[in-house]
Design brief:
Keywords: Cell outer membrane, Membrane, Receptor, Signal, TonB box, Transmembrane, Transmembrane beta strand, Transport. By secondary structure, the chain is mainly β. It has seven helices and 39 strands. The longest helix is centred in the first third of the chain and has 18 residues. The termini are far apart.
Length: 727
Amino acid sequence: MKNIFLNTLFLFVSIITFAQTSDISISVKDAETNEPLLGATVYFEELEKGAVTDFDGIATFTEIPNGNHIIKISYIGFKTIETTIDVGTQKEFAFKLESGGNELDEVVIQSSRSTRTVRKIPTRIEFIGAEELGEKAVMNPTNISMVLRESTGIQMQQTSLSSANTNIRIQGLDGRYTQLLRDGFPLYGGFSSGLSILQIPPLDLKQFEIIKGSSSTLYGGGAIGGLINMVSKAPDEEPTLDIMLTQTQALGSTANVFYSKRNEKFGVSLYGSGHYQKVYDPEDDGFSNLPQTTSISFNPKLFYYPSEKTTFWFGLNGTYDDRIGGDITKIESGENGIHQYTEENLSKRLSSQAVYETQLDSVSSLNIKNSISFFDRKLTIPDFAFDGKQINTFTEMNYQKSANKTDWIFGANLYTSDFDENDNATLQRDQTDITFGAFVNNIYDISDNWILETGLRADYNTDFGFFPLPRVSLLYKNDSGFSSRIGGGLGYKIPDIFTEEAEFINFENVLGIDKSSLEAERSYGVNLDFNYQTRLFETVGFSINQLFYVTAINDALLLNSTDNGFFQFENATDEILSKGAETNIKFTYKDFRWFLNYALIDTKLNYLAGNPQKPLTAKHNAGSVLMYESEKWRIGYETFYTGKQFLSNGTETTDFVTMGLLLMRNFKFGSAFVNFENFTDRRQSRFSPLVLPPHDNPEFPEIYAPTDGFIFSVGIIIKPFGNEDDD
């Protein structure tokens, strides 16, 4: 009886002890400077619980079970710590991180389709993290153009003064050769491409992943120039609420709200954005440089976690966007005499995303995803309207398996696109495309220093046939901070009418795609880059990346005039050849960071006599960004140089320099900021006219420089759950 009592008492005490929990804090500092590290990640692997350090470098946790726990502490640019702590014996822990390793060593990139970190992926991937995204969201809270415009080798090409329609050019290639993804879904393109980046606010995004050069093996047709994958924020145990309010001197008002939270079984994220821009005319020439815009976006997501190994989430993305530009008098007072010209874009977008991912065992996983995207747009100018609806669907299943030295990915997908022009239109340019695809990708560790990646995709389009798409990349890395990648692959693009040339003339008198006479565009490309990172004088961090690239496009889609006043698409008789180099240099010293970049873009149209440079493509571009970041302040000064360009008629433009200044102060409630964008007021109207007479039926020259000029903005970011300074 006595033994039974003692055993029962021992068991009871053990249960009580086991059930006890503690609230703890973990301090993370720079081992060299002893300064707190803001934004370091602290993660309990067994508990699947994580937190990010605050301005004091402290991460706090509640109700951690007493006992030994393995934690992992990581921060970009520092060596990761994995160690064991004994919760219960103490409640405060302190760690110091040492500099070293590749800056992006701990960043896992989704667009690679692999769970490897950047340092171990042979494909060259550029990463833009949450910190830089936050800076760009302050500079432009309405859309992602600021994020991309300041990336080396990427150009935002505006195609319309009145509507501000803009396309993304990577390494001198038209926007239709860039595949724009969100969480791995190809949601933006076709009829919506000229408006796509104008309708994606940045506040609910946590990172950008950019692959330059052909990426069709990974994601199918359209990624000839490259792909940009935007990764959304996911809910965590700790609730997040961000409220951003911004006002510009150009009478633009923007509100963004993001909320997320999860528990053991369910999670939710809610995002909403509203933007109103009054028509803006800095030249006082009677025509708008910024259109009158009303834009509303929403993006709710629901997450379900049936087990620790399985996640299912479903999201909706909706946008209503109405922008009207042109004659100021007509916009504000109605048509009157010579005041007749306006361009209006009314668009509505609704898309769904569903993802099921599960860990089958310790080395393999299954991922199933589907999206349906609906886009309704009406473009109206005097005496003409282009009106249509486009429905795109994307379904994919992939299986991943990892071994000691090799990773495999097998997958298949179905992509459909259906454009239906209004039945009242004179030219019926409806188009339906169906593409089936299957792919396999392998990453193999040849040794500690050499990693090989190979892949093969086979796509079949019901109208244009079969596309075999091989790719190969090789990575060399060592422990002294040097690495190099070389890779190449093939790509293709199915023809449609939504090109920059067609959009420039508002699709008026543009004939539809003749599938019986046109060939799909095909490409090949090669990238070679070198990376080196070290410390200078023990206090200055230094890194450099040098890229060389070549991309060639055969059977390029051209828009040519006919004898009867129409425009029809034809295949080019020779290739478009884009080659060049990109240089990125970074210096760090305590709270200062200095980025320098240069891009040489040599894009030749070999199908024209003399192989001229592609119009509206500056051969030389350079930039400098100086940042100061402390616990309380973030100050950024930017300078960007754009070299001379050629217009379609052969006229050479002037080069120009733009400058920007950002001031941001962190408080306990959040942050306040002011931004001086293009404060030297460089705009095209200072070099050449933006509008040519007659006033009632104006002509608009090609756009090669900023049109809006200096924009001053002021705003606040409110974090009810969040910021803490050391006051």
